[in-house]
Amino acid sequence: MTVTWRGAVSYALTVVVVSWLIGAAVDLAWSAASGGLGMWASFWLKEPWQGVFLGAATVSLTLARRLMDPLPRWRVMLVDGSVYLAALLVCWGVAAWVAGDGAPVDAAFFMATLALFTLQLPAAWLLCVWRSGSLEVVLDELHGGLAAR
């Protein structure tokens, strides 16, 4: 049994985009309270690595849900939460490395901490649990199934 491509893509887009929007909204509230809206816009809207992260996380979660067997909700949160975090760490680590940062791993973990404080990571974990309940599962061709969508 496997998750359909349509279901996996829908799941991944929901988790990635909604959690990213929650992180941006929380950071916007913090920035508005401190008067740093210019910095917020340059980080969340103008930074090209945000788009790279959105794409990489969506592809990673889609492949994880499509290629893995269906899991209980608590395992989906552990596996997909780890995939989401790994995509975040890799994207921001590469971004720091490309920018010439001497410690790209530190920059990547700083971004993970920021994602935790802006509720982006907790939102992703909760969305994984919520959205995994409505994944469409079909029999795949490798296991003798008839429907491989």
Automatic annotation (TrEMBL):
Keyword annotations: Membrane, Transmembrane, Transmembrane helix
Source species, domain of life: Bacteria
Ranges annotated as spanning the membrane: 12-33, 48-64, 76-95, 107-130
Protein name: Uncharacterized protein
Gene source species: Streptomyces coacervatus
